[in-house]
Amino acid sequence: MEQIKILDDLYLFRTMNQDINLTFNQYLLLGSRPVLIHTGNVQQAEELVMKIKAILGKAELSYIYFSHFEADECGGLGIIHSQFPQAKPVCSQVSARQLRGFGFNYDFVVKAPGEWLETPEYKLDFISYPAEMHLWEGLLAFEAQRKIFFSSDLLLRMGVASATPVEADWHQEIRDITPQQVASPEARHTLQQTLAALPVKYVATGHGPFLTV
After folding, report:
1. Distance CA 92, CA 90 (A)
2. Cα separation, 15 vs 3, whole angstroms
3. Which single residue of 51, 58, 155, 196 has CA 20 to 30 Å from 133?
């Protein structure tokens, strides 16, 4: 697992899967209430725990935000939470319901589109994410102070990712969202309109390079 300090208070953790030619990214945003963005799967989470502890030192992890119910977004939640039991998972109602069905009875912070999670150092604004084939309600996040969009599976690039940020055209990235990513034409159009209105400066992809736009 590669660890990259992207910004002064943002770390990227990246694992390359050669079999499918795709990287898997997690992020740690620091502050008085640090938040982990995605857990990775079980194997990734086991390695991630030690890296988070080394960065935080005596500080505690406060939140574990994940965009939707899938192995690489929240598959390692049990491992992360066992090491940081005070951390509250932040997710959509659908994701919390699915996890409770698998016996994860945590103190979830359930958010809806249009709501936010705010601390003195950051504000995560949540956006509707009709994720995966069933269009289960997920949550994308825009960090308003640094203008970072955490794109999850929405904006991704295959192949080995650069260790440094890559320049991109924000509006082209939005136009390139495919029916395979959001199957409903109406939901896709609404999401594209919502994203186009955001003052995005960075894109923290779930798969691929960190983008500057």
Report:
1. 7
2. 9
3. 196
C-alpha 207/C-alpha 64 separation (Å) is 18
**Neighbouring-strand partners of residue 2:** 14
Pairing relationship of beta strands 22-29 and 166-167 according to DSSP bridges: unpaired
Q: How far apart are the first and last CA of the chain?
A: 26
pTM over 0.85: yes
What 92-95 contacts at long range (C-beta under 8 Å, 24+ apart), as own/partner pairs, is 92/68, 92/129, 92/136, 92/137, 92/138, 92/139, 93/137, 94/69, 94/136, 94/137, 94/138, 95/66, 95/68, 95/69, 95/136, 95/138, 95/139
Run means of pLDDT, 10 residues per run, the chain, 213 residues: 96 94 96 97 96 96 96 95 97 94 94 97 96 79 98 90 92 92 90 96 96 95
**Domain layout of the chain by residue ranges:** 2-212
